[in-house]
Design a protein that fits this description.
heterodimer, A: 127 residues, alpha+beta, two-stranded antiparallel ribbon, 5 helices, 2 strands, B: 402 residues, alpha/beta, Aspartate Aminotransferase, domain 1, 2 domains, 7-stranded mixed beta sheet, 4-stranded antiparallel beta sheet, 14 helices, 15 strands, globular
């Protein structure tokens, strides 16, 4: 499953124009549809863009899905979900989300959004 | 890029070519004269004030008091009525904690408006909660104006204080604060004015308005961060005790507070920032204020017309269609404010997005957040063109699938 994040990092690093990175996450958000998870139990507190993440376990494997009012945040959140999807809890807890680190896109994420997205990993840690 | 006559006074733009800085309501850039003042103080003049008897210290104190006089003249106040604070936020908290709180009981109320920034809302909310007093929030109209009828209804014999902003930090509109002052005077209600968004663009005279308190923030008017001003009408000074206690505010072994405004300035003060604020005021007074006003007025008109071209993407400007200060906020039915701001950042356009510390207004307007552009005297028409080109590209991308 480490490969999912490595593949993502490779894909993003090959994009010459930052706008292509935006397009990638926007397309992912649009492809993510409208999951029925906008309930308070799934809401990530402290994210000003509205972020919902549902974490389930199916046959010992994690299944995550996400939704947000912001296409960019939704796309990034869904990418995080993809990294965790199919992992066991142990594997997920050992996985650090790093794909945003090398990109200037992180500059678009102010503290509250980064805190919101990092809470997805926080949910994993509490499993 | 076409430069206006004041832009070269601000070295930030030479250091950041290509950046369109449209976040002046958050903080402004500084003219070289202000930067030089700070450098000169720390290079040649740095010494504590109000503590030591040597020449350099006395000179620093004299400069600090000269700065206080400059601020007083700027506001139409007496020198002794000017308190230096760290910020507008601190100023509001001083009035709330040391003037209002001592009068407040559960049978009283405080009136604020839905337009208030959290710095002029939360201090009142906090002391009302402590005293179990009522906090009354005056509504805003559909156009984003203060509902004066609602204000008159909410002020009564039990109102201790009314805290009102002179200008909205996101709508570009001025409140009718002179009319508010008249209403407060009729009801003998003390008035606190938040001038943080106003003073970079327009002057205000506290004597003419006859407010009891007024506060502003240095960094929003081309001065350094870390310095604010609280105007306290002289008659209130004696009865108010300081919020923060420490060095420099007591005399004698019985720890009596000093009687002037310095009693609110405990601890080591940021003298450099005071001098920087005075320099910023002098800069504003040296440049032709009428020309600046005309420039900002023309920018407002230009921006306003630009928004008409993006309406097709579902963009809607918030508030009154007549914008008095160069502050504009908008939402888009088809795109989230964060996404818009993020894409604008890609195009090197600095804007603010979110609820802008004005949750009351946003709650009343039924929206979660917006994108705000706020211009300063150094912004240009070319920058407005760049902004709208980038906005259109961003909106085209974000609304392509909606």
């Amino acid at each position: 499953m480490l490969k999912t994040q490595q593949k993502l990092i490779k894909k993003l690093s090959q994009m010459e124009d930052e706008l292509d990175i935006f397009d990638y996450f926007i397309d992912k958000a649009l492809a993510g549809g409208k999951p029925d998870i906008r309930k308070s139990e799934y809401q990530i507190r402290g994210c000003a863009s509205g972020l919902w993440v549902k974490v389930e376990r199916k046959e010992d494997k994690l299944v995550l899905t996400a939704d947000s009012d912001s296409l960019l945040i939704k796309g990034i959140a869904l990418s995080i979900c993809e990294i965790y999807n199919g992992m066991t809890v142990k594997e997920a807890k050992a996985t650090k989300i790093t794909f945003l680190d090398g990109f200037d896109l992180a500059g678009e994420l102010n503290e509250s959004r980064r805190n919101g997205l990092s809470q997805i990993s926080g949910i994993i840690m509490k499993l | 890029m076409m430069k206006n006559k004041w832009r070269n006074d601000f070295p930030f733009f030479a250091g950041n070519p290509g950046l369109v800085y449209f976040d002046n309501s958050a903080t402004t850039q500084k003219p070289q004269i202000v930067i030089d003042t700070l450098c000169r103080f720390y290079t040649d003049e740095n010494a504590p004030i109000s503590r030591s008897a040597y020449t350099l210290s006395r000179k620093a104190e004299q400069k600090s008091e000269t700065a206080r006089q400059i601020v007083a003249t700027f506001l139409g106040a007496k020198k002794g009525e000017i308190v230096f604070t760290k910020s507008a936020t601190e100023a509001a908290n001083i009035v709330a904690a040391t003037y209002a709180a001592r009068r407040l009981t559960s049978r009283h109320n405080i009136v604020v408006t839905a337009l208030e920034h959290n710095s002029n809302f939360l201090p009142w909310r906090q002391i009302c909660a402590g005293a179990r007093a009522e906090l009354r929030v005056v509504k805003i109209t559909q156009e984003g104006c203060l509902d004066l009828e609602d204000l008159e209804q909410k002020i009564d014999d039990q109102t201790i204080i009314a805290a009102v902003t002179c200008a909205s930090n996101f709508l570009g509109s001025k409140t009718e604060y002179e009319r508010v002052a008249e209403i407060c005077k009729q009801h003998r209600v003390s008035l606190v004015l938040d001038a943080a968004q106003l003073v970079a663009h327009q002057r205000i005279d506290v004597r003419h308005i006859n407010c009891d308190f007024l506060f502003l923030s240095g960094h929003k008017m081309y001065a350094p961060a870390g310095i604010g001003v609280l105007y306290v009408k002289e008659e209130h000074l004696v009865e108010m005790n300081p919020l923060l206690v420490g060095g420099g505010i007591v005399s004698g072994q019985d720890f009596c507070f000093v009687e002037n405004s310095a009693k609110f300035e405990a601890g080591t003060q940021d003298v450099a920032a005071r001098l920087g604020l005075a320099s910023a005021i002098q800069y504003l007074q040296q440049i032709n204020e009428n020309e600046v006003a005309e420039h900002e007025h023309n920018l407002c008109s230009y921006v306003h017309s630009g928004f008409q071209h993006v309406e097709k993407y579902g963009v809607k400007m918030l508030g009154n269609q007549v914008v008095e200060l160069p502050i504009f906020s908008f939402i888009c039915e088809k795109a989230h404010f964060f996404d818009i701001a993020a894409l604008l950042n890609h195009f090197q356009i600095a804007v603010r997005s979110g609820s802008l510390c004005a949750q009351n207004a946003f709650s009343q307007m039924g929206i979660e957040g917006c994108v705000r552009i706020s211009l300063g005297l150094y912004n240009t028409f070319d920058e407005v063109d760049i902004f709208f080109n980038a906005l259109e590209l961003s909106l085209r991308k974000l609304t392509a699938f909606s």
